[in-house]
Each structure stands twice: as structure tokens, then as C-alpha cells.
Amino acid sequence: MKYKPHKYQVYATQRIIDTPYIALLLEMGLGKTVSTLTAIDLLLNDYFDAGRVLVIAPLRVADDTWAREIEKWDHLRHLRISKVLGSVAARRRALKADADIWVINRENVEWLVSEYGSKWPFDTVVIDELSSFKNSNSKRFRALRRVRPMVKRVIGLTGTPAPNSLLDLWAPMYLIDQGERLGKTITGFRDRYFTPGARSGHVVYEWKQKKEAEQRIYEAIADVAVSMKAEDWLELPERIDRTIPVRLSAEARELYKKLERDLLIEYADADVVAQTAAVLSNKLLQMASGAVYDEDRGVKEIHDAKLDALEDIIEAAQGKPVMVFYNFKHSLDRIQQRFPQARVLRKGKDGNEDIRAWNNDEIPLLCLHPKSAGHGLNLQESSCQTVVWFDQIWSLEEDQQANARVHRQGQTRRIVVMRLVAEGTMDEDAVAALERKASGQEELMQAVKARIEKVHKELIAS
Predict the structure, then answer these.
(1) 356 and 277, same structural domain?
(2) Do 356 and 374 belong to one domain?
């Protein structure tokens, strides 16, 4: 296929070429992979400013997306890609292959660093989904941090740079600029921009932003962070978000309130126990969806209210495919029991066949877990117009990535995203939390948004 880039893709490609380390905060659907590959091709073969390129990505993306994009576009097909995946022996063979680009899943970054040690061979590193390195204590971050001084070029890609709060920015930005802008340590970053809030002894559980901290952080990273939003550059069909209130029966509400109050529901065979606040919130979300795991990992069914609501939605879709996101295994089991036509996206080659079948309207009801459907899936070619969140989640990144599987470039139909929210339950808190996080995300994206039109006008004027 001939590549006809949008203006923002031309800009993104040029920024990669011009900036040795850069964070491209491109929303889902803006074609960040092909923009990056185009820059890599130029750096390798025209500017001779890159030698060995490593791409770090989520497993499914590493296994499929980057190679598929190279095959898709005429101007990239000469690039040779080697997938550093599978067993240790397979990975070592892949590293020895004659290639231009080596792709590895992020779980094996620590292994790769230990494999090479001080003889790190990659001068250019692309981190696909940069926000997955937000935990400064994670093994993957610490490993990459050790070899960062040996890397000449770093390209970070993500649509959700601060999925929970601005605290998430320090580790990803450190991998970009080695601490030049936000400080060399997470402690220094916190001290500079935050004040401690809730704590237990010496352990701080909450950090509050200092006055004007957001603006100072945005200004600090603006020269190496380029932000673009899909709505500014693509004429996507309308996306409608709807909350569907689900009323629980009196019996179900009483059980819910009992667990919330007593942290215990007694059954004859095994009790449902919530020992910590985190466990309690998870159990309450389960109960809001209709079932809950007991202490023996058995399933206690509470209600069918969400299944009934889903049945109404499927009927209203009038035969068009419906996509459902679930978070709990027992939710999937109950959905499949009520709706035998429901299919789950499988892994590997079977998963690729499922994607083909879905895009050809051969699957009427597709059930996806947001963790496995967040990156690298193009599911927008079906006639699906209805996306349903059966279970509610806390992660903004997973929520945005999952919804973008359908509402993305190439979509021609209006999409309705429905959230089944049990009234008076933790569902409402989870949805409210996502909205608050989305607000903070929007502020970040706007603060460092690429002023492409302004740059373009300045170039014309000069």
C-alpha cells in the first residue's frame, strides 16, 4: 500500500529525526507505528544516524503489529525485522539474525540487558507504550535505566503518558532524557513538585501537587514531549458515552451492603471475606457485576441484573456485532453461559483468525479483557457500533486503549460506549475515578500539544 501521510505524521516523523530523545504522546488511532518506522528507515538508510534499532513493546504488539506495519506499506518493505520472542534459545537466535530492527516484549527487557551487559549493541531504542515503564521500582525500568547511557536515540510512544497522576511521568521521562528535566531521582521529583498527604508512619500513601506544579512540569518537558489528539487531526465518527444504570434486587443490595459493612458474607461451604481495603473494593466490584469469589476461589452468584441489561443491549443492536469488555473470569463465564454465541479473542495465530472473523462480521458477540486487548488490535472494520463495559475498572490507560480498538482511524460508523453501572455500588466510584483521571490526562495532553500549525506558519513566514 502506498503511504500518504497526514500532515501530523510528517511532523511526527521529522521530530523523531530532529530530536535524539523524544516522547510522542500520540492518541490511539493516529498511526504512530508507521510514523516511527518511516523515521527509522530514514535514520538507517538516508541519514546513517542509526545502526541497530530495538523496539520494546507489549507481547501481542511485538509479535504482530510492527512486522505487519512493515509488510503493509510499500516504502517500508525492505526493512528486515527480527522478533526476539519465545524461549531463551529462540531469542538468542533472533538476536543473531541479520536485521534492521529487533523487537522484544517488555517482560524480557531485564533478560536482554543481562544478556549483553556492558556490550549493549542497540544505539536506537523505541519504547512502544512508554507509560508501561511508569513504575520506577519495576525490574524492566531498572534494567533499561542501566543501559540508557549507551543509547544514542530514544523514542517513547504512548497515548496515555500519565494514566493515574503526574507522578507517573517521572520514570518514563527519565528513560527519555536521563533525568535532565524532571530530576535524577523520583524522590527529588516528589520533593520539587509534591507535598506528602495521607501517610502511615513513615510511609506516604498520597502525594498532593504543589501550587503551579502542573504548569512547571509541562514546561519542563515541552521541548521533548509532542502531544497530539485524534480529534484534532482525524474526522472520526461520533463516539457517544452512556452510563446504563442497573438496579439491583433488594436481596442483592442487602448482600452488597453486608460485605461493605462487615467485610464478611457467610455461606455454608465457604465464606466471602475482604481482609484489606484493596480486596474489599475488588470484591464489591465483583458483586456489582453479579458474582464474587469466596475464600476457596469458588463463585457465589449474587444477581443477573447486568446479564439482563446486556441482553436488552444485544437485542437493540438488531443483529449487528457487539463488543463486551469484562474484568472478572466469572463475568466471562456467566456471559458465555447466557449467550452461547459469545466468543473470546484467543492468542497467537488463533487470535489473528478471530480478528479476521470479527472484522468480517462472523462473530456476533466478542468478549475481551482490557489487559489483553489494549494494544495493537485493529477491530474497527466490523459493523459493530456498540461497546459494552460489563465490569468497571480503575485503569484509565486500559479503558482508553480498549475503547480505541473500535473507535480509531478507519472507523466509518458512530460508536456507542455503554457502561453497565450498578446503582449505589463501587461501580459508580470506579467510573468517577476514571473521569477524574481523564481530566488530568487532558490537561497534560493539551499542555504539551504540538503547535504544528504555528510551526508551519512560522516556516512560511521565514
Answers:
(1) no
(2) yes
At 168-182, the pLDDT tens digits run 999 999 999 999 999
433 is a domain residue = no
Confidence at residue 452, expressed as pLDDT on a 0 to 100 scale: 47
pLDDT of residue 270: 73
What's the pLDDT at 451?
45
B/e letters for 114-127, b = 16+ CB within 10 Å, e = fewer, are eeeeeebebbbbbb
Strand-pair partners of 368:
325
25 and 140 fall within a common domain: yes
Query: Can you give the pLDDT at residue 274?
Result: 72
Least confidently predicted of 9-18, 48-57, 375-384, 430-439: 375-384
For residue 59, pLDDT beyond 90: no
Domains held by the chain: number: 3
| DSSP collapsed to 3 states, the chain | CCCCCCHHHHHHHHHHHHCCEEEEEECCCCCHHHHHHHHHHHHHHCCCCCCCEEEEECHHHHHHHHHHHHHHCHHHCCCCEEEECCCHHHHHHHHHCCCCEEEEEHHHHHHHHHHHHHHCCCCEEEEECHHHHCCCCCHHHHHHHHHHHHCCEEEEECCCCCCCCHHHHHHHHHHHHCCCCCCCCHHHHHHHHEEECCEECCEECCEEECCCHHHHHHHHHCCCEEEECHHHHCCCCCEEEEEEEECCCHHHHHHHHHHHHHCEECCCCCCEECCCHHHHHHHHHHHHHCEEECCCCCEEECCCHHHHHHHHHHHHCCCCCEEEECCCHHHHHHHHHHCCCEEECCCHHHHHHHHHHHHCCCCCEEEECCCCCCCCCCCCCCCCCEEEECCCCCCHHHHHHHHCCCCCCCCCCCEEEEEEEECCCHHHHHHHHHHHHHHHHHHHHHHCECCHHHHHHHHHHC
Does residue 436 fall inside a structural domain?
no
Encode pLDDT of 127-161 as tens digits: 998 999 999 999 999 999 999 999 999 999 988 78
Host domain of residue 281: 249-302
Same domain, 243 and 256: no
CA count, 13 A, side-chain hemisphere, 245? 3
Asked whether residue 216 falls in the same domain as residue 327, the answer is: no
Q: What percent of the chain has pLDDT over 90?
A: 53
Kindly report the pTM of this predicted structure. 0.69
